């Protein structure tokens, strides 16, 4: 094959033109395959990777496919280095990398104490291999753009293959590889992410769209410890991705890549200014916000707290993200920071100054926020409330060759919809110290075995940490310099911030001309990008970006997982060029299983037993039991509930003004006004319900459910259904893997199409299984049944459970 010159378009052979990328503009996402169907139901809700678990498999299976897609975008920020200023109405067609045809990739959920097998399929076999030999010593520099692998950023899991190995694991084009992740039983819940991490092609692939959010759901002890105002908050996801066309073209040219291009040519001489995507879309252009109001990124209920999970995938510069009322003089939202880089703060809430409502985001940061936005006119929740703007401003970094855009852009809006529920209480009324697993407990500065190390990087040089020897459970004190321009990321283990002075906070001088003479304002607000208290001693992070040229102090303690611990600059291009090190952690030759927890840290209180709802034990007398009568107890113990995207408006709340169960449970329980039937609604994969039963005599029994699931449209596959029933799961044990003690049955059907009819008609209630029931053996006495909902492609409604003696 001949060389491809500058400006010449290359298409793969056999006429295989990449598809258009699916983004937030496509709420009805079509599936990758019937087994791996992304689940999304609201415009602001990210599509989810569908895990698959066949009968009595002890692991979940899923699939990520890396391939080429076309993406249509508008440049929405000004690049100071660009030769021309882009027309904000000009669209650009980009051919780039993506997972499962989506930008961002599908949202991935995992749970503590479970095993996941994730197959990564490299479908780049039709593209040229590019530069085969790294241009710089020690294997550094852009090369082999079609070879890939996967990194689960921030997870506390093994770095040994087939786990999170980025040193030796490589997936050639046209091949696939299955990773196995054993999530420790004490893994903290939080927001993480995933992206390619093959040395030499990381920057090109990850910075061009191949990345996605990953959520870990914690174990029973953490759930039991969680204070009421912070649990079960409706989740909203915001994935920010910067596409720097000029830098990507440079990387493609250096590596010999022929996949990435824009506007019909590989390397135009004047690339358009970068675009910043929010959940895959450029909803706004420049500082104007009119184009955002009709397509909100996030929807929250007025007067109620909601969680906003933010992931920032940036190329080289840190940013400040702000919330601001769209209407002049409008009321600001109340905002609290809950977690950084997947780890809850030591003390909650940490409220933001409403005059700024600003957070700092490094290149790979995740921040979890609790947001409560005001009611509309009248203050009773019935009138529409004013929208909130999500504003984005890059910060220049000392020593960086990248220059920040002078424009503070509007990424999108938060729509505030009316509510008839009473205003939620202030979080400050319930201060809370989250418990932490042992690997995230405090590291005293006076620890007797504390090792001291200076950590640094130089361009093209791995630095002081390469081949550095560490030991499990031996804490270390590191001093790190210039992390603003070179944010330092540690794999496997987080870093604990030491003392931070005012010079190391996000620099207020990075917006020198914000306030100018003769500006008219009705409120003299402080510099909106001044964040004097953002970095605080005791915060855990996995990516360090502390301001100033001085040294920052962090503490690192390798825990549980011996082997490689990669440390690198998270400017991916810098890491590809050599600013990456591999420390080695020594440990026992026969390490304990990842699921074995020796020390629960400060999560010392085991979950308490649940109690029957209203003390009414389910008596097995042949009658049905309403599904809403699950046990009393906390999330993670008596039930698990996920509210993703806009919370469903319940009839009982809008018409009756009450929570049917009259308890603190957030499980969506509603009533059908047509037949006065109560039911549990919005059941999603990963949830469970627990019931206390009284078995009169030892013997054979039959279990069945009564459910309603709409039949999908003709162009959608069958939703399928997969769930299990477990006997006497220990408190906080959630849903054990099939085959665990107490496993009564595991039902799986990939072809089940639902109870019908298709939407918008209300689905009918049917008995499931259709052939009658599942046969189970029970001993006499009090027991608990845990009904676990595994995998399916719809939410559904559960009306009754039925347990009766087996018919002879």
UniProtKB/TrEMBL annotation:
Q: Where is this region: Disordered?
A: 1-22
**Is this entry keyworded Transcription regulation?**
no
Superkingdom of the organism of origin: Eukaryota
Respond yes or no to whether keyword Transmembrane is given for this record: no
Q: To which protein family does this belong?
A: Belongs to the multicopper oxidase family.
Q: Which Gene3D superfamilies match?
A: Cupredoxins - blue copper proteins, Galactose-binding domain-like
Q: Which UniProt keywords apply?
A: Metal-binding, Oxidoreductase
Organism, per UniProt?
Answer: Tribonema minus
Task: Kindly give the PROSITE patterns that the UniProt entry links to this protein.
Answer: MULTICOPPER_OXIDASE2
Q: Which CDD domains does this entry report, sorted A to Z?
A: CuRO_1_Tth-MCO_like
- What does the record give under GO molecular function? copper ion binding; oxidoreductase activity
Q: What is this protein called?
A: Cupredoxin
Tell me the ranges covered by the Plastocyanin-like domain, including all copies.
147-217, 479-586
